[in-house]
Amino acid sequence: MESALTARDRVGVQDFVLLENYNSEATFIENLRRRFKENLIYTYIGSVLVSVNPYKELEIYSKQQMERYRGVSFYEISPHIYAISDNTYRAMRTERRDQCILISGESGAGKTEASKKILLYYAVTCPTSDHMMTLGDRLLQSNPVLEAFGNAKTLRNDNSSRFGKYMDIQFDFKGATIGGHILNYLLEKSRVVHQNHGERNFHIFYQLLDGGDDDLLTTLNLERNPHSYSYLVKGSCPRVSSISDKNSWKAVKKALDVIGFTEDEVQKLLNIIGSILHLGNTLFGEGEEGETYITTETQLSNALLGVDGSALKEALTHKKLTAKGEEMISPLNFEQAVSARDALAKAVYGCSSVFITDVYFMYIGGNLYFEQFCINYCNEKLQQLFIELTLRSEQEEYETEGIAWETVQYFDNKIICDLIEEKHKGIISILDEECLRPGETCDVSFLEKLEDTVGGHPHFITHKLANGKTRRIMSREEFRLLHYAGEVNYNVNGFLDKNNDLLNRNLKEVMCQSENQILSHCFRREEVIDQKRPGMAASQFKNSLMKLMEILMSKEPSYVRCIKPNDAKQPGRFDEVLVRHQVKYLGLMENLRVRRAGFAYRRRFEAFLQRYKPLCPDTWPNWNGKLADGVSALVNHLGYKAEEYKLGRSKIFIRFPKTLFTTEDALEAKKPEIVIVIQSGWRGMKARRRARRRREAAVLIRRCWTNSLLQFVVAAVLFASRLISYDLFHFRFIKGFIYRHEEYCSENDYFLDHVRSSFLKNLRKNLPKNVLDKSWPTPPALLVEASEHLRRLHMQNMVVKYCRRVQPEWKKQMMQKVVASEIFKDQKESYPFSVGRLFLDSRLERDQISLKVLQTLGSEKVQVGLNLYGVSVIKYDRRGFKPRPRQLLLTNTFAVLVDRTKIKQRMDYTALRGISVSSLCDGMVVLHMPCEDNKQKGDAVLHCSHVIELVTKLAMMANKTNYVNISPGSIRFAVSRVKEGIIDFTRGPELKVAKGKRGHLLVVSQRLFSHHVDRLCGRESVKKPSSS
Fold first, then answer.
1. Which cell locations does it reside in (predicted)?
2. Which residue has the higher pLDDT, 768 or 932?
3. At residue 1, does pLDDT exceed 60?
4. 406, 572, 743, 752: least buried by Cβ within 10 Å?
5. How many domains does the chain have?
6. Is the CB of residue 78 less than 8 Å from the CB of residue 50?
7. What's 377's domain CATH number?
8. CATH code: domain of residue 665
9. Long-range contacts of 987-994, Cβ-Cβ distance < 8 Å, separation of 24 or more
10. 395 vs 366, 398, 402, 646, 799, CA distance in Å?
11. What is the C-alpha separation between 42 and 58, in angstroms, rounded?
12. Do 829 and 966 lie in a common domain?
């Protein structure tokens, strides 16, 4: 960070703590302005990050930028949201303490974008697995849903967050994200039923109408026109040019799917949204005696809410009272019925908004009411926490470094927090008491009670208690609080009603019985049964805020303060008045004064010494002693005075920015001298390296010259010896060729050895690569026997390797193919076309076989595809040859013919006398059974589209491969004990099975043409026989 101090006159300082005139608000804002003009939107106040919304895309959020800040010390490089993210992540892992990042600022200041950048950083840089990536996607994809249900167009911002959020991201011991949950605070539910002029309801209503498909809108009985719904036109601004509700709806639908919502959950959620629109269109009439009744149809709301229609009507127009243990039903007047309807709409929307947005901002100007009072109370508590934790952090660092703590003077806003929240005496307690007090109560009586109770408080003023000058600018219905950010006037109109904004008990009873699980989960029956009155709205908010404070106090905080540079959202425009207003209510000057009360600058010894060591001869170029001694020597050489710095245990603390600026300027002046020293050292090193290489080259050349002479002499001697050896080899080779037909002897041994070696070398290069390759090099005469032996060994080796690679299912397939080849090869015309087709474990799926049949076969423990083969066949009656569709099931011990759910015939393999098929391309098969057995019905005449597969499997399972008979002309079969039938086979243009004139069964087989391959393989169904 110190490297940027030289350009401080142009771009300002990166840390406000280094401002000379740190008490000047004008100097603070001028530093912001300089950096904003240079697109430097981030600045530190110590460990606090100040972010100015640029209203344009900046190239500072890429993955390369993430890697730049990953694992780097907080102050080493320029301020960035990634630096805060990485610092908290590393602190969590090293210190094993929970961390939190608190983001605050005005609407439109960029809080939501800041939270998105933090989530993106963790999603990209943290260790991930497939599960972690899914969690990261859910975190990132949650934003469109959060904005749809929690954001709305306001006068200040088209995408303003209307409630606060606390997002808890959980990491495992490896630093990977494993989950997270979200808490929401103070949803602005009043926006559901009322919007100021120029504002809209929550985005989700308009996104549903504009982006939802026609079927969805029909289901919800909604129209696309937002003007048709009372709750959407209060602000007279249903359409916004800068917002595409249709595209936003697509993003929301996608995000809901990524987050993990089921279709049923999404539909229930949208039912709630649709019911709210219909509730807003519910109108009331008033009878002569003041009773109220509903004038519009409420069936649509009833159906979408999942409640009884008559019960809902009764609850909207009557209230249930309990007095002395007795329940009474009292009718509501017109205003009360409208309030009950609106209260129900707000409560129901609160159930659907289980999501979150951002932390609040302080309201100061304009007419402020109950909601703004709660928001400003929240900011007061956050400011108190901020100052307290900042002071505690400073004090802990001083104590760790062994430096005496100096008391810091600052404005403690505890007095304001007590004024609001003190028990029995605070504004919230007085408000609750006035709401519960019997008799006539109103907002004015509440104001009078405030004047009586806290009228003497220095931070509380009303029109009655003010001086003459203040009375002229204050209404009689207002009271003023002196917040830390300035004076704020609140109008008491509506305080009691909004604090009393509770659902009638009978409305809660109706919603408890809802069939919509989201509503039944929110409206619990325990709350209805409990007679204790629920807390008022302000007290509920206070309790929720106290829980948030407890959570934040238990964690190590980091802060991001967001600033909006102008109201027009124009890039490059800096409105000084608006920025000064935000600097004031964000308490930035107060934070700076607390941070600067002690020392403006602190760095670890190693970082300080590494940067400034060139300024002292004792520390340059390296310091080999203790770091503290090196820093002490450096500052003594620089002439630091005792009051300008302190040395801690591991850090140096510098009190005044001027001291640091002087040191940095001295380093800038020293840099040219350092450059000269570095250059001279580099040039000397290059010259010495060049001289050394020249000496080494000279030695090498001399050595090579000497070696070359020796090599020449050696080469000459070798050449002469090789010439002599060559002549000797030539003589022995020729002599061996002459005596090659003789027995092995000294005259031919050299030649024969050469022949053997040449053959073996050639064989090694040309060995067959697979079992189908029958090639083999031709051996010389003396190696014929050895060659044949080697060929057999090699073939056996390839077969063994191949068999080891064959999977069990392929082994089974090959065994079946081998058996099929033994039975049908050169015997049946359709066999060649079945070779390339796999035999299946079963031609029937389990759900195609009757469960009753499987139970009947259960004693055999059959399993389809394992020990049960099934195939569809056509059985021809032995008398009349009528075709009947059947299923043929083969088990390990018998075969059965099945007609739907009934076993028609069982054929034991031990009784099977034979299997007959023709030699043509038909699918006929006859199973010969003994006629003497009364349990058998004679031979079975079948037609199957997979006859090769069927016969092969039956022959193997029955162990009757030798009992398969392939007849070329006709097949005889037993009709009964004394009568036999005949099947005649002939060729024709197409496959046909019919009853012949002599009572024979005539089967016409197709002629063998290439374009009939598919039919020959049994793909075409057999036509039913006809009499001819």
1. Cytoplasm, Cell cortex
2. 768
3. no
4. 743
5. 4
6. no
7. 1.20.58.530
8. 3.30.70.1590
9. 987/920, 991/921, 991/922, 991/1015, 991/1020, 991/1022, 991/1023, 992/1023, 992/1025, 993/876, 993/881, 993/883, 993/924, 993/943, 993/1022, 993/1023, 993/1024, 993/1025, 994/1025, 994/1026, 994/1027, 994/1028
10. 40, 5, 10, 15, 83
11. 12
12. yes
Residue 978 to residue 843: CA distance in whole angstroms: 36
Alpha-carbon distance 681 to 728, whole Å?
68
Residue 593 corresponds to which tokens in the numbers above? Answer: 């004064």
- Asked if 530 contacts 324 with a C-beta cutoff of 8 angstroms, the reply is no
Looking at every residue in the chain, the average pLDDT score rounds to 79
Write out pLDDT tens, residues 648-697: 878 877 776 677 777 777 777 777 887 888 888 888 898 999 899 899 88
**How far is the C-alpha of 22 from the C-alpha of 558, rounded, in Å?**
22
Q: What is the pLDDT of residue 809?
A: 83
Whether 88 maps to a domain, the answer reads no
Are both 835 and 958 inside the same structural domain? Answer: yes
Q: What is the DSSP letter of 424?
A: T
Whether 821 is covered by a domain: the verdict is yes
Residue type, 679: Q
Residue with tokens 């000459």: 716
50 forms beta bridges with: 43, 561
Q: Is the pLDDT of residue 110 over 80?
A: yes
Q: Is the pLDDT of residue 324 over 70?
A: no
User: Does residue 689 share a domain with residue 723?
Assistant: yes
Looking at residue 352, its pLDDT comes to 64
Phi first, then psi: what are they for 342, rounded to 5°? -65, -40
Residues flagged as binding site for ATP: 105-112
pLDDT tens-digit map of 934-962: 666 778 999 999 999 999 999 999 999 89
Domain containing residue 449 = 368-500
Residues 771 and 798 sit within 8 Å (Cβ to Cβ): yes
Predicted TM-score (pTM) of the model is 0.54
pLDDT score, position 872: 94
- Torsion on CA atoms 168, 172, 176, 181, rounded to nearest 10: -20
What whole-number distance in Å separates Cα of residue 236 and Cα of residue 218? 26
Ramachandran class of 71: left when φ > 0, alpha when ψ lies in -120 to 50, beta otherwise: left
C-beta neighbour count of 62 within 10 angstroms? 9
Question: Among residues 786, 805, 824, which one ends one of the domains?
Answer: 805
Which residues are annotated as part of the binding site? 105-112
